[in-house]
Amino acid sequence: MFQTYIYIPLLNALVAFYNTIAFQDLGIAIILLTLFIRLIFLPLFYKGAKNQFLIQKLKTEIKKIQHNHKDNKEKQAQAMMELYKTHNVNPFSGFLMILVQLPVLIGLYQVFLDGISPESLIKLYSFVSAPVQLNTGLLGLIDLQKSSILMVILAAAAQFVQGWLSLPKTEKGQELSSAEQMGRQMMYMGPVLTVVILGSMPSAIGLYWLGTSLFTIIQQVYINKTLDIKEEKKEHQIK
Fold first, then answer.
1. pLDDT exceeds cutoff 90 at 197
2. Fewest CB within a 10 Å sphere: which of 25, 26, 75, 201?
3. How confident is the model at residue 86, as a pLDDT?
């Protein structure tokens, strides 16, 4: 089932991009496939970012509930869920977003690890032609079948920026919750893990990782601005 519904469609999409608008450049084909996947998940990503934005706005009320029911976890959980329900917030949206994307991410990694080889080309659909000649480079600069320290560094840097943008805004001297402290630790741990994971892998995976982080950064900036504008309009209407 995984091969039929995830791996094979992704492989065919990559080869289709390679044969057409990628000008037979594997690096460009990977970038286009990454963009295609991100656009598919954009509604889900937007919903998750919106929920995180609203949870941040409710931070004062959340801390008040935690303080008032600190000795009764059951009442605390009930009050929290009632608060989320009142403001139409799904606290589990971030987890659901990861859960939905996970099979696709695994499929993409499998595609990039296997590469476009004679063994994988037999899995192409009848309407997708096998490349006559395979160019495994990115604009003739990097061989995507080999590891590249430059690609690893760029991917790690993009991962750091992505983590920094995802952090909630806090005032100077404000005490951080355990979740916020963990988020700040992950902002540094993420790039380190990126270097460890990508260090020995083909640059094709590093390029996908980099592309995903860059598109996520662009989406996050856009969504943050959109939600800020909506919040300002709402506050202005109330006044």
1. no
2. 75
3. 85
